[in-house]
Specification:
heterodimer, A: about 290 residues, mainly alpha, MetI-like fold, 13 helices, B: mainly alpha, 12 helices
Chain lengths: ~290, ~300
């Protein structure tokens, strides 16, 4: 934008316009203030969570679970990782393949319809998906980690599809044509040429979905419910997750319990922010290519 | 890009197999959505047929009021701040600063809702109680009971605090959507106006924002849909009272918080009512995201007609 030149023109204008210029300047600072107001809560939150959590961060937090020794929340930390990892393992292949189908094979009409449907799916509140899992999956799998994985998976699916579709679209048609012209079969062209080119972007899609899944609370409340016990890879029984710990410890009066909620919040926040920063750094790089 | 597969002859060719696998994945996705849709609609029928809709709404006035009130407060907070921030980022900020600020604003969206809830419960709520709530309650609240507060014993949780928190949480959504829309306004429109001697703000006020208006309204609708469905952070600060509160500074509940806190232990009757409420939430947010898409298409038409 030609900010500097606009400025020059304004400065050389006649002085009777000074009121307009003052107003212009005033609105510029108002807009700046709005931007600061948008960012301020983030800074307040990060500061508050970090200062509250640091006194409670120690190795015991990651080793002990409340059932054995009350000094840790390993059940929640590793529960979250297990739930989210299981969900992404289940959903990433489906999402990526669905995006490949839509981008490489489907007709234009189907693509625009699917975009509408995926947009709608992205907008469905997570509590509604949790409610669906409660109505359909919980009667089958019980109140268990498995039900939670399904609920989180449903929430991750549209994110994987949408982001993957967007990166596949960026792969130039000439790349596909070159491969096909060399006699490479279509499926090899798609997997070894198109997906290879878009690999970094597909990884971004998976990381974004993972980061979203880590923070989901409401659906877990209806499907997994949480437990004090440490659960390793038994998806048939309940498990715990960091969001559930934060939620159930949040109103505690006991300083250690609330301290552990802060610690869990810090761990969760750092993981979510780190994953998002990695993703953004990657997209900046891939735009150059 | 659609591949023509007439070349592969064998039914068992890898090409066909791969295509079939990809198609299966797409069908699984579509089927999941269809199942969700059908299950929710069927599940809501018992409650919605048992009572007439007006009675149903009257019986659940508390959560419905709370949902609408928090969403309106959220939009009142996030709308002006988000749109002005988007204007700053596109029109005023130096390019480098704009990149950094956009990045930071978008990070807000990455923070899990439950972390927002924990922070609000222990920090934001108390600040709001001692500032905005107190100012409003001790001025306007003296005449309008809807904004009043027991000054000696302010409520521990309130609808207003929940709405304000949701407002903070949807700011990044408002900013990024409005930013896209404002950026799509053709530069020639701005140049024409500036060339006639308008100041930067006059250009924004009289050219950019009117052109982007439909799109920005769409962005607000999408943000409204997000605000209506926000669950866990709201649950943590709204207080969980089931009745319509006498004042927005009193505890309340929303559809989402009711579902999250009472569905697992609910009796069959209550369960079907909660499901019906959830389905209403589902359709409202669905309608809002469709409205957003229509608005986006409209804006694209306006901007394209100028180029």
């Amino acid at each position: 934008m030609t900010t500097a030149r606009t400025h020059e023109m304004l400065e050389s204008g006649s002085s009777r316009d000074s009121r307009r210029r003052v107003w212009d300047r005033f609105m510029r600072y108002t807009a700046l203030a709005a931007t600061i107001a948008a960012i301020a809560p983030l800074i307040a939150l990060i500061y508050f969570v970090t200062t509250r959590a640091i006194p409670w961060l120690d190795a015991a937090l990651f080793v002990n679970n409340p059932l054995d020794k009350p000094s840790g929340i390993s059940n929640a930390i590793f529960g979250s990782l297990q739930l989210t990892t299981a969900a992404i393992i289940a959903v990433a292949p489906i999402g990526i393949l669905a995006a490949i189908y839509l981008n490489e094979y489907a007709s234009q009409r189907l693509v625009s319809w699917s975009e509408l449907v995926i947009d709608v799916m992205l907008g469905v509140p997570s509590i509604v998906v949790g409610m669906f899992a409660f109505m359909v999956i919980v009667p089958q799998l019980g109140v268990s980690a498995g039900s939670g994985v399904v609920a989180i998976g449903i929430l991750m699916l549209p994110i994987v599809i949408r982001t993957t579709q967007e990166v596949l679209r960026l792969v130039p048609a000439s790349v596909r044509e070159a491969s096909l012209a060399l006699g490479v079969p279509v499926w090899k062209t798609v997997t070894f040429v198109v997906c290879r080119t878009a690999f970094s972007g597909i990884l971004t899609a998976v990381i974004l979905a993972y980061s979203r899944g880590l923070g989901e609370t409401a659906p877990l409340l209806l499907t997994v419910r949480g437990t004090f016990a440490q659960n390793w890879f038994d998806f048939g029984t309940t498990m715990n997750a960091m969001p559930l710990t934060i939620y159930s410890y949040s109103g505690a009066a006991d300083s250690r319990t609330i301290g552990q909620a802060w610690a869990a919040a810090l761990i969760l926040m750092v993981m979510a922010l780190a994953l998002n920063i990695i993703v953004r750094a990657r997209t900046v790089n891939s735009r150059v290519a | 890009m659609a591949f023509n597969l007439t070349g592969s002859r064998s039914l068992l060719s890898p090409d066909r197999a791969f295509r079939a696998i990809a198609l299966t994945a797409a069908v699984v996705t579509a089927a999941t959505l269809a199942i969700i849709f059908v299950v929710l609609v069927l599940g809501s029928i018992p409650a919605l047929t048992a009572t007439a809709l007006p009675e149903f709404i009257a019986a659940n006035a508390g959560p419905i009021f709370g949902t609408v009130a928090t969403a309106i407060i959220a939009i009142a907070v996030a709308g002006p701040i988000g749109i002005l921030a988007a204007v700053y980022l596109v029109e005023f900020a130096p390019k480098r600063l704009a990149i950094v600020l956009t990045f930071v604003v978008e990070l807000i969206a990455a923070i899990p809702s439950v972390v927002f809830g924990l922070w609000a419960l222990n920090d934001l709520s108390i600040r709001l109680r001692d500032s905005v709530e107190w100012w409003v309650a001790s001025s306007i609240g003296k005449f309008i009971p809807f904004f009043s507060e027991d000054s000696g014993n302010p409520a521990a949780d309130s609808v207003f605090r929940a709405g304000f928190l949701v407002g903070i949480m949807i700011i990044p959504l408002v900013v990024s959507l409005s930013r896209e829309i404002i950026r799509a306004v053709p530069i020639s429109l701005r140049e024409g106006y500036i060339g006639m001697g308008a100041t930067r703000w006059e250009t924004i006020r009289q050219v950019v924002l009117p052109t982007a208006r439909v799109g920005i309204i769409g962005a607000l609708m999408l943000a409204l849909g997000r605000a209506l469905g926000e669950t866990i952070a709201v649950t943590m600060v709204i207080g969980g009272s089931n009745d319509v509160p006498g004042s927005i500074f009193q505890p309340g509940s929303t559809i989402a918080t009711r579902i999250a806190t009472t569905l697992p232990e609910a009796s069959e009757d209550v369960k079907s009512v909660l499901i019906a409420l959830g389905v209403i939430l589902f359709f409202v947010s669905l309608g809002l995201s469709l409205a957003m898409r229509l608005a986006a298409r409209q804006t694209a038409k306006i901007t394209a007609s100028v180029k």
